[in-house]
Amino acid sequence: MGIETYDSLSGMMLYSFNMPIFFFVSGFLAYKESMEIKAIGKRLWQKFLFLVIPAVVFKVFMDLLHGANPAHFLQDGMGGYWFTITLFECFLIYYLVALVIKRSGIQMIIMAFIALAGIGLLSLYGEFGPKLLDMNRLAKYFQYFVFGLLAMRYKDLYEKAMNNEWLKAAGILSFFVLLFIINQVSMPAPVFHALRDLVLRYLGTFVVVSFFVCRKEVFDTGSRTNKLLTSIGRKSLAIYLLQYFFIPSFMAWPEWIAGMDGFTVHVISFAYTIVITAVCLSFIELLSNSTLIKKYALGQK
């Protein structure tokens, strides 16, 4: 709806933690103390069915709908569905390390080393590897997946840090101060990207994750709001698959939006988000009537 990624304060704030938290939570939930070979193979296959197959199905149909070569994703990548491939690659790396290294502590050291190596490659080359594998985004976000693994591996220390009042105060203040500085102050490009793409993202992730950890009892209740949030959360992949499928048809927004102030645009965008989520949920219920579509197109169990 016209709110660009980094062209506004709100856009910069939201994009500082949206994908980092996605990969952090994925790593947090992926961690296991130990895994047998059979269990690793089973989990990897489930992740492939859940993440890769539905995204490919929607990408192929999207390209067919717009007259493009349905196989061109093999060369040009997955477009807006990139995160499904990247997340699968994160699981693949973790499971391979777990297959070779049995001690969880050493696993975490190896995973941290791989994450650091990826950041180094990204800083040197920017883009590398086949577009389908999207190695640059893997290098960018794998660190947050590892951060999630470490948080679960050392859960007591992690929760203590999330609840520490001094850390929370420092994190919140640092996040908003840095956000305003980046948005208002001119600085050399390397410094700007280091602050925006690394420091701000870690601060944003800490602030938002700490908020939910410190209020987890609120979200454990069986209220209607929590049940709705849980239902939407479990269908979040299917919602994204559907809404991105239709995005090309709704890319242009009405001209009258261009003349509105920022606050009004944000309100309209928020309302649009609620409507499109409700529409997607309705489509999901309809499509889920077929078990095959539910499993292989929507990534639902």
Q: Any overview of this molecule?
A:
With 301 residues, this protein is mainly α. The protein is built from 15 helices and no strands. The chain has helices at residues 9-30, 37-65, 73-76, 82-100, 104-125, 135-153, 155-163, 165-184, 189-214, 216-219, 224-234, 236-246, 255-258, 262-287, 291-296. Helix 1 (9-30) packs across helix 9 and helix 5 runs antiparallel to helix 6 (135-153). The longest helix has 29 residues, at 37-65. It is globular, with a radius of gyration of 20 Å.
Choose one word for the global shape.
Answer: globular
**How much of the polypeptide forms β-strand, as a percent range?**
under 5%
Compute the number of helices.
15
Q: What is the helix/strand order?
A: HHHHHHHHHHHHHHH
Mean pLDDT: 86
Cα(first) to Cα(last) distance is: 32 Å
Q: Are there runs of 5+ residues with pLDDT below 50, and where? A: none
Share of helix, binned: over 70%
Short description:
With 301 residues, this protein is an all-alpha fold.
What's the layout of helices and strands?
Elements: H1 9-30, H2 37-65, H3 73-76, H4 82-100, H5 104-125, H6 135-153, H7 155-163, H8 165-184, H9 189-214, H10 216-219, H11 224-234, H12 236-246, H13 255-258, H14 262-287, H15 291-296
Helix pairs in contact: 1-6, 1-9, 2-4, 2-12, 4-5, 4-6, 5-6, 6-7, 8-9, 12-14
Attribute tags:
15 helices
